[in-house]
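User: For a benchmark we're assembling, each entry needs the component sequences followed by a predicted structure for the full assembly. Here are entry 17's components. Please fill in the structure.
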Amino acid sequence: MSLLPTDDEVMLADAARGFLDAAAPIGHLRGLRDSGTTHDPALWTEICTMGWAGVLVPEAQGGSDMGHAAAGVLAREMGKTLVSSPFLSTAVIAATALRKVADYRAQEALGRIARGEVTYAIAVDEGPKHAPEATELHAKPDGNGFRLTGTKRFVVDAGFADRALVLARTGAGMTLFDVPLDRDGMTLASKSMIDARDAGDLYLDGVVATGDDILGQVDDGMTVLTPALQAGQAALAAEMIGLAAGAFAKTVGYLQDRKQFGVPIGAFQSLQHRAAHLWTETEITLSAILNAGRILDNGEDATLAVSLAKARASKTAELAVQEGVQMHGGIGMTDAHDIGFFMKRARVAAEWLGDYSYHAEIVARLRGF
Amino acid sequence: MEHDLETFRAETRVWLEANCPPEMRDSAQGEDTICWGGKNWAFTSEAQKTWLDRMAAKGWTVPTWPQEYGGAGLNRAQDKILTEELQDMGARLPLQSFGIWMLGPALLHFGTHEQKLQYLPPIARGEIRWCQGYSEPGAGSDLASVQTRAEIDGDMYVVNGQKVWTSYADKADWIFALVRTDREAPKHKGISFVLIDMTTPGVTTRPIRLISGQSPFCETFFDDVRSPRAQRVGEENRGWDVAKYLLNHEREMISGGGQGLLGGRPLGAVLSEISDNLDPTIRAEATACEIDTLAMAMTLDRYKDQAETTEIGDASAMLKYAGTELNKRRYELMMKAKGADALAWEDGEAEGWLRTKANSIEGGTSEVMLSIISRRVLGLPG
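Assistant: Structure for entry 17:
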């Protein structure tokens, strides 16, 4: 197994970069924020036209089925310019969950994802930290189905998505529901997130769900959700190393252009060494991310690889944006400069789907500490 | 391709099973288990000699070198398999040396066919042990300011000067050294890369006692040492090219120092064995260190794969910087976890811990590595 990019991956990255530089540079996110919106349906339609929404959808359902490493390539390129899209929640997490189920309804849903006809929000967490196992939202048996009551927090993309994957506690375990967000009893409180992307709190008050709304088996939702979350964590880590690379490129550019004391500030050894250390960290983290994509595609148990990738990505992105703002000096503190967008996205992405500590603990346990 | 590799793996396993002496399968790591080879080498056991001879005959002491120079001509994928199979059976490496890590790659790249034929097979067979004559009292991080001079006298050089930090010079048969052959030229342009027999009259060595109590390093003195000019590698006054190339290999080698030193077991597992109720702060630090170690191993692998087609070049400074700083962290954690149980020499931890402090100095300091990265990789001015 080699972590070097294949020819296909190089071509995919080049094509993605070319498209995104034109269609979604950082100014695109700034424009969304300034207009008070979190989602650009036209951009998502274009992304779907290129087949990215179907990156994990089987060809039989109209997808391109390129795999997790390829999804990582796309996420990484999107991260470089902070592209706001439902790629992770819909094309990666929901698609992976549906693929795990693979019944007729799930196949239909996969086809709709690939064609850009449906978007998903991920409703798992209920507290300030990622903790699927701490789910309290409950699904009470009611006739042939269930009634869902409880609160989900940090529900990414809920402000515009059509459906949500909702994790609920049932009699002897947890069950994963796939329900439309406009069903009676659902209330969404959208939040003004610091990264100008979409998230909110979702309140469920006796929402009716039938057996048709269940992904996988009753009481066994994690069998479907865990691989989906892992796919999401790996792709989010890839987005974050893209983010780190984007912030780093801006910072190195500034070190070369900005003059103080009559010389480019990049000539000062104190800044050179910090930049070199940061580059070192990004290279090491990149390996962990490439490895996670390969392991997922090989179908091996990816728990260690994914947690390693998300842990390293969270830490490296944090370093990249902190160094980025500090080395930009005063201009880095202004809203007019883009580096602040990287800092805010890094903070949100670090928390989503598990922060450094969450994933470090998984690594520690798997390595026998 | 995959099928060929699986066949290779199966054959390799069978051969290793049949040829690796049981005594050499103890997963032993550390300085005193290494076979360095050389004329002065005293084998620690008959098994150590047998293992070296069998592996050398197979070309597997230097698996990727061409067969005509003592290797087996393995490609990277086969080499990986051989390494994995050796690790799986807990086998010691049959031979380690500066000839394998440093001089060999430089000779393969810059040497003439005759030089390769003359010097490489004895390295592969463990017959000649080499040391490195780079640093001088006045040339540490500023390596290109070497002052040891070689004056031309017909077919011979007459060498005068002093080298320092020449690892195991007192046990080596030959030295590869940087000498100044043009004192008028800019400092990088007047250096030559020469090979000198340590038994030549005028060569003397003196061990340096280190903070670990050990003396792996020496001072080496050259007083009117007459050595053939034909033993120069590369062109006269172009030795810096060879020196840099070799340094990149040295840095790659040192960067691997964080790997496998604990028998490949996770740091935390080792820590919890030696210390019940592992302190939560140390456990957290060890977890972070383990995460970084795993990611570093993947990075080394990725760069080695890349080196199959493209020279790693100055990026080796990144591997060296990260690998050595990580290794120091690992040993600090080991010491902290053991506490007072690691403070006596007889506890056996302190020597290794102190040795790692040289990792971020030897082969170029961490600060020099960061400067190389910033200027040559990132393109910052200066």
